């Protein structure tokens, strides 16, 4: 069964290797775990539901608790402490677009707030209920989880929006296809959630981001049903898909998703290359992607992440031999790991391997082969379980991510890391910070930073530590040419930073779309943008006629 | 100097080869050219300008005539007959974003309609003035034509929005880069026009459509300046770039465009392959693109287009030898030509060639080498001059284009061709119709159909012939899962068909954006959508509060 207060299935887990604990002691000091609340204590504290009865809605306390929080660090602390603050008043489990339509109409007539819910894996507060005078209904799409249609000639598959990653891939694999969308949250996140939050998968170099994979579908909006037909491409005006991508439930509920699929590849390998320095690793990665080498995945860890990964790898003898070999080849202190995926026909993989080997040689990279890459691939979706293991030892882990143009990567990365590393200096605490680049484009890449620190003496202190670091680093990101999110979306946590990125008129455009689809403003309020009210004082020109947004 | 009543430069032109004329006689009959009006007669008929004086605006009659029409067939007939109907009241030639801002403010204060003008190459009526009580200003962006900035690390270039194709490529080539965006209109069209109309170039397989190339920039809107910052990718809400892409001047004037550029490739070749049949050629193309073979260009002509191209090729002896060779290899009656471009490093080109040769062999394709491909590359931007040559012989040529999913390609193509071929049957005229597929995606491809017919006895009759075919075929396209445009945009000519494609709510979303950016509705009215007024009767749910779009 799924954990009510953490990541994944109760039967799955991860242990820190003994060397790993020692490594953290050395980096941030000895820690002491905070006590977890019990499910029973939380259930006892759920307030009565304010929802009128409806056959598709349950107001069962456990369902409400299990849908009250996502997977952000504040969510984690709330679930562990039992201090949830807010709960949905009920949870619906629609089984069809018609069910969703009926539920929406029910809510619109009664002024009930609707929060669409995919896998509940948001790390930015997308699905959190809030202080509201109106009742809140969470709409869990989990029962709409089937492959509805597969057009093998056009390579288009239609899924229920609540289909989670493993189930989606299993249904496709049975027919010889893959979507190839593998975010870290793959085990639990859903195709509808991927679209609504503009997600990106680990092999986006081959398969594209969800923007490239989402071909159309069906959205139940407060104004009626929006069908987005499929075209391979079109120049006919602004693209409606791009309005729904990243709409985060503000414009309606995605019920059916059409995605572009690919036949399963003949061959796939992941290589680990080690470079003597950060600059060499980063430059090699940039040149690989700018040279359009046909890779499926690319990731570059900085020196601290490389060191941390090797320390936590759990097979110290092998790692010792590897380190000796690398030292002999010129990569010791400050060395950086790159993981390269090649996927495709045998000939494509051979060509890609030939091309990347030629390029990494120019930057003194050492190809260690596929052994470490295979281990990475095996464990690629287990990383979220690491938070559980660290928590038991008294450590808190969170990640921050952004993307920026190549000319700004080092500048932004250094600012983010420096701010986090010094984040708890006032209280004499150390923070262990490391980073990788993991999604690559000709223009730039994503920056994904992990930070580990000791939990405070209380939950409140722990949350305050986190908030200080999160807030100041988010400020640094948006004010230094970084996007507030490359792959996690905006939610409620990033909403205050969005105006810096979109600008005043950009925010007006998004607000206008929200008002258009959801005139009553009942869809997931507070997510994506704080307010959709037309701004009054910000208009450059006075409006003389056709002032369409006067409320 | 640029032709005032046709395509391109007066010193450039094209002649039909003698065999070509005979071929058309045989297919559609002997024709007689209509007489052209003189520039003087048109100048004499321009009404007085209604614009107040402004130092950046000229009301010179020739400037107004030269900006009154694009390159659609109705535009062509208007320019040839001299019956222009409407003219802009003046033309402005801004040299900076500040000039554009000043002009916009001038127009907003005085209720002057603004038509942004790039290269004037629209084939869908984007830049045509219309019957209006308000004066109309055309804003020609042609003086904003410089490379403003080149970031070689992030491979981003900033151009003035009025930079035309050859000038843009020359400025980049001098620095070792290319944008790689080569629409048929390349000689005259501009980077701002490409973005505003969601253009696609012949080598989009390698470089992407303009959607993938447009990274950000500056838009002067009636509500103020919209800056779109560059990010390699972002999951932070709906993408503002995607709102401006395809906005066709309805939301403002693009003044600076940031595009993603690529270093000039080491190697480039175009091969011509001939297949015994349409099905074999089409299937090979689909499998090449679905197999992610690294090509830069792909094009498949159907049997009539293949036959027509060979007849009009102008070197009959060589073609005769080629036909004999192909017959010996099994490709005679019904054979179809494919053009394949490979671009990249030497190793990438070798790998691509190896992969496509292996695949075409499975479909009995005959690779004729690079000779015909070189000829195609040399003449690739001269095709628009062909209309001039045909016109002098009494023939009218136009094209129609769409895109659809693979499972629907043959169905739609056959419907479009059959409708055009029978288009003039009531008056006993024949129409010569042929098609190629020219932009390929895993999901489907574009369909580009050319049709040639004899001009009528009068201009009115000729226009009526065209309109009947255009209208009925556009209906067929949007009602048979085709987009109303894959690469030409909507303009005024396609606007009536857009609601079928976008749906009622999709149209509401686009209208809301237009109202948001342009509350006075002075920006290019009638283009893209017929009306941006909020629909009254189409709302599914009655609006109870926050009804933001009540006028």
From TrEMBL, chains A, B:
Its cofactor is FAD. Belongs to the FAD-binding oxidoreductase/transferase type 4 family. One of its GO terms (biological process) is lipid biosynthetic process. SUPFAM superfamilies: FAD-binding/transporter-associated domain-like (SSF56176), FAD-linked oxidases, C-terminal domain (SSF55103). One of its GO terms (molecular function) is FAD binding. FAD binds at residues 116-122. The keyword Nucleus does not apply. The record marks 299 as: Important for enzyme activity. It comes from Hahella chejuensis (strain KCTC 2396). Keywords: FAD, Flavoprotein. Substrate binds at residue 387. It holds the Pfam family FAD_binding_4. Residues 84-264 form the FAD-binding PCMH-type domain. The active site is at 448 (proton donor/acceptor). This is FAD/FMN-containing dehydrogenase.
């Amino acid at each position: 069964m799924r954990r009510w207060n953490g990541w994944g299935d109760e039967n799955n887990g991860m242990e820190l290797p003994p060397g790993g604990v020692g490594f953290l002691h050395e980096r941030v000091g000895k820690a002491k775990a905070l006590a977890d609340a019990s499910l029973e204590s939380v259930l006892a504290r759920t307030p009565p539901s304010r929802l009128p009865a409806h056959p598709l809605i349950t107001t069962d306390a456990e369902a409400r608790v299990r849908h009250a929080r996502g997977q952000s660090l504040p969510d984690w602390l709330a679930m562990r402490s039992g201090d949830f603050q807010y709960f949905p008043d009920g949870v619906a489990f629609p089984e069809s677009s018609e069910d969703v339509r009926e539920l929406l109409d029910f809510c619109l007539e009664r002024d009930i707030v609707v929060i669409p819910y995919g896998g509940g894996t948001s790390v930015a507060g997308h699905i959190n209920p809030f202080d509201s005078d109106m009742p809140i209904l969470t709409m869990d799409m989990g029962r709409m989880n089937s492959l509805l249609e597969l057009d093998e000639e056009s390579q288009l598959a239609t899924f229920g929006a609540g289909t989670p990653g493993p189930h989606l891939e299993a249904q496709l694999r049975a027919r010889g296809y893959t979507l190839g969308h593998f975010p870290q949250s793959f085990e639990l996140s859903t195709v509808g959630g991927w679209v609504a939050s503009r997600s990106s998968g680990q092999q986006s170099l081959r398969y594209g981001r969800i923007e490239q994979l989402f071909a159309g579908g069906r959205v139940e909006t407060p104004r009626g049903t929006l069908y987005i037909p499929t075209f391979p491409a079109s120049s006919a005006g602004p693209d409606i898909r791009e309005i729904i991508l990243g709409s985060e439930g503000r414009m309606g509920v995605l019920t059916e998703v059409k995605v572009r699929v690919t036949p399963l590849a003949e061959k796939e390998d992941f290589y680990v290359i080690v470079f003597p320095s950060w600059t060499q690793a980063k430059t090699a990665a940039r040149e690989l992607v700018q040279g359009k080498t046909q890779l499926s995945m690319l990731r570059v860890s900085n020196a601290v992440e490389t060191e941390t990964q090797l320390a936590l790898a759990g097979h110290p003898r092998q790692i010792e031999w590897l380190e000796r070999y690398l030292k002999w080849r010129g990569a010791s202190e400050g060395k950086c790991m790159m993981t390269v995926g090649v996927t495709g026909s045998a000939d494509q993989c051979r060509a890609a391997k030939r091309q990347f080997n030629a390029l990494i040689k120019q930057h003194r990279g050492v190809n260690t082969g596929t052994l470490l890459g295979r281990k990475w691939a095996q464990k690629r979706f287990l990383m979220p379980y690491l938070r559980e293991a660290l928590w038991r030892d008294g450590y808190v882990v969170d990640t921050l991510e952004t993307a920026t143009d190549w000319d700004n990567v080092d500048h932004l990365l250094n600012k983010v890391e420096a701010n986090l590393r010094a984040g708890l200096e006032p209280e004499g605490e150390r923070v262990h910070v490391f980073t990788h680049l993991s999604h690559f484009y000709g223009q730039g890449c994503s920056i994904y930073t992990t930070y580990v620190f000791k939990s405070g003496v209380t939950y409140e202190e722990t949350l305050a530590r986190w908030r200080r670091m999160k807030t100041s680093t988010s400020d640094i990101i948006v004010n230094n040419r970084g996007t507030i999110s490359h792959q996690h979306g905006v939610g409620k946590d990033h909403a205050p930073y969005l105006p810096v990125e979109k600008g005043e008129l950009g925010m007006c455009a998004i607000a206008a779309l929200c008002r258009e689809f959801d005139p009553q403003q009942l869809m997931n309020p507070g997510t994506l943008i704080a307010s959709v009210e037309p701004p009054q004082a910000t208009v450059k020109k006075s409006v003389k006629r056709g002032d369409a947004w006067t409320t």
